[in-house]
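ligand=PRP
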Amino acid sequence: MSLRMALTKGRLETKTADLLEQMGYGVENLRDKGRALVLPDTKNDIDYVLVKSNDCITYVEHGVADLGVVGKDTLMEGEGDYYEMLDLKIGKCCFICAGLPENNPLEKQGHVTIGTKYPKVARDYFASKNIDVEIIKIDGSVELSPLLGLVDGIVDIMETGNTLRANGLVVFDTCAEISARVIVNKASFKLKKNEVMKVLEDLERAVSENAECNR
Ligand code: PRP
C-alpha cells in the first residue's frame, strides 16, 4: 500500500530531506521540486507533499496524509487528533519568555501583557506560573512588540538568539524545548501498519545514528 507523507516546508525542509536520504529513500524530487506539489519518492511507494506547518496537522488528521513531519511548536499551539510517534531531533529550538532587561514580566506586579504568535503556549506557560496575563497576538517579528512598548514581554521561538540580541532583548526563562516530530493518522496506523512502521523504524534508526555521531 502506498503512503503519503506531509513534510513541513521552510526551516525543516532540508533537514527532513537529509534524514530521508540518510535512510536510503529517493528524495531527488524533494530537492528539485520546481512548482510541483506532490513529489514521489524515487525508490519507495511514498508521495511527499510540502505544506505549511498547520496544514501538516490538518492533512494528517483527516487522513489524506498518513504521516507528517512538523515542529513541536505547531503541535503545542494547535489541536488535532493524531498519534505523535517520534522525535526526529532536528529543527531544535525552544520557546522562551523574553523582554527588555529592566522589565521582567515574571516579576512584574499588576497588569502584564505578552506579545506572541503562540497564544495557547503563552497562556499555558503563564498559567503554570500562576500569573494572570493579557495575550496580544502578533503575527511576525514578535520582538518588535516590547521594543515599541506594546507589551511587557514576549513568548516566542529562539533558535540562535540572534534576533533577541540584535534588539537588546534578554531571555527570562525557557518555556519548552522544541524539535521536529513525526505524527501519524490514527486510521493509517491500523490499516497500513506495516508500511507506517517501516518508515518509523527507518527514521528511528537514522535518528539514533545521528545521536551516535554527535556524541
Ligand atoms: C522566528 C522567531 C524569531 C526568530 C528567532 O521568526 O519568531 O523571530 O525566528 O530565531 P533566532 O533565535 O535564530 O534569531 P521567523 O524567522 O520564523 O519569522 P517571523 O518573525 O516573521 O515569524
